[in-house]
Amino acid sequence: METPGSQSSLHRANLERVVRAVRLAGSLTQAEIARTTGLSAATVSNIVRELKDSGTVEVTPTSAGGRRARSVSLSGDAGIVIGVDFGHTHLRVAVGNLAHQVLAEEAEPLDVDASSAQGFDRAEQLVTRLLAATGVDCSKIAGVGLGVPGPIDVESGTLGSTAILPGWGGTRPAEEMRGRLGVPVHVDNDANLGALGELVWGSGRGVRDLAYIKVASGVGAGLVINGKIYRGPGGTAGEIGHITLDEAGPVCRCGNRGCLETFAAARYVLPLLQPSHGPDLTMEGVVRLARDGDPGCRRVIADVGRHIGSGVANLCNLLNPSRVVLGGDLAEAGELVLAPIRESVGRYAIPSAARRLSVLPGALGGRAEVLGALALALSEMGDSTLLDGTATASLSTAAPAFT
Q1: pLDDT digits (tens, 9 = 90+) for 221-254
Q2: DSSP β-bridge partners for residue 339
Q3: Cβ proximity of 250 and 268 under 8 Å
Q4: Residue 368 confidence (pLDDT)
Q5: What is residue 58's three-state secondary structure?
């Protein structure tokens, strides 16, 4: 038995610090591990050697700053995580290993009028199919990250009332999937997972404070403060879509008038263009037409950008993030939407906050949420099984990096 404060317990703690740093980052040089953990270079070198000998990590030659270095990552056969993303019109599932490699990924349409039970059954079937395709043993699942388009009560795990997935309000998504898969499931809303995905692998890399704005059927924000997702005590932080822009504006699904969502979300924007562009117009189509020069679509996207910028300015004044990342189909509009966002931020935000802010499109596109779900599962799993050698079976499929 290890005694608190003993050399053996200190060594174990240092092992866990190194494994956790590598697990969350995907791969780090030994110098980066030392900076991240606060351990000395000599201590890190000894621990990496021990972990390599036990098969927990893999070490490969690389370069950093023009110098030779060694990149450390968890062994590809140490275990797997699963990401599940429920959207307004889609279900996307990804299977990844602890070395931050995707083994399989697939998306399929989801009928928003389907019951929650049907949705969870579909997710279980898709997970089972992907595991079979990769030849991965279910015993190697370390955890599942699950994303839903609505607020999650942090205490009960209950999905709040949502007009995005009708009939799903009051369900407990983590409990539902846990019952089907028999493994730990961690749930969060899609905007938070988009923020986590971009923070780890996309446009948020290298910053500690950012806001990920997702504009789709609704408008939400995932907030990262000091490197961690901020959910608030009730799990509803980031509902930027319900900032009031016009008290006499349209009635929002939340019951208030003139929310940002009523000026920016697809359900409110598309009707403005359908009389001239047809009833089958989608937000993706609006963006495509705008990029091709359609004046009506360009005007609508510019207006949406200015409205989003007003909401972002409020975030700047309250939280002073260093970066805002725009996700969803609208991000594909590039400067057509980003420039108006910056214009509104410059007009309404405190100058010192606006000067420090960069506004970028998401780098992961429609994959941001499912990759964020993988990141959530990675962040929530413990390190004991890795260090105790209980997850060592081989995964046979080689795969590309998450990005």
Answers
A1: 999 999 899 999 888 899 999 999 999 999 998 8
A2: none
A3: yes
A4: 95
A5: strand
Identify the CA nearest to 110 among candidates 82, 159, 141, 147: 147
Distance (Å, whole) CA 148 – CA 87: 7
Q: Are the beta carbons of 357 and 63 closer than 8 angstroms?
A: no
Q: What is the DSSP letter of 383?
A: S
Query: By C-alpha distance, which of 86, 26, 31, 78 is closest to 52?
Result: 78
Would you list the DSSP string of 342-372?
A: HHHHHHHS-HHHHHT-EEEE-SSGGGHHHHH
CA–CA separation, 3 and 227 (whole Å): 32
Residues 329-352: tens digit of each pLDDT = 899 999 999 999 999 999 999 999
Instruction: State the residue for tokens 């039970």.
Output: 117
For residue 283, give Cα distances in angstroms to 202, 211, 266, 280, 342: 23, 22, 6, 10, 21
Helix 173-181 × helix 116-134 angle, to 10°: 40
How, if at all, do strands 90-97 and 80-86 pair?
antiparallel
| Of 369, 362, 377, residue with least CA distance to 192 | 369
Collapsing DSSP states into helix, strand and coil, what is residue 375? helix
Sheet holding 219-225, edge to edge: 228-230, 219-225, 210-215, 323-327, 358-361
Q: Are 368 and 198 in contact (CB under 8 A)?
A: yes
Q: Going by DSSP bridges, is the β-strand pair 80-86/27-29 parallel, antiparallel, or unpaired? A: unpaired
**Quick one: tokens of 95?**
């299977």
**Alpha carbon distance 42, 175 (integer Å):** 44
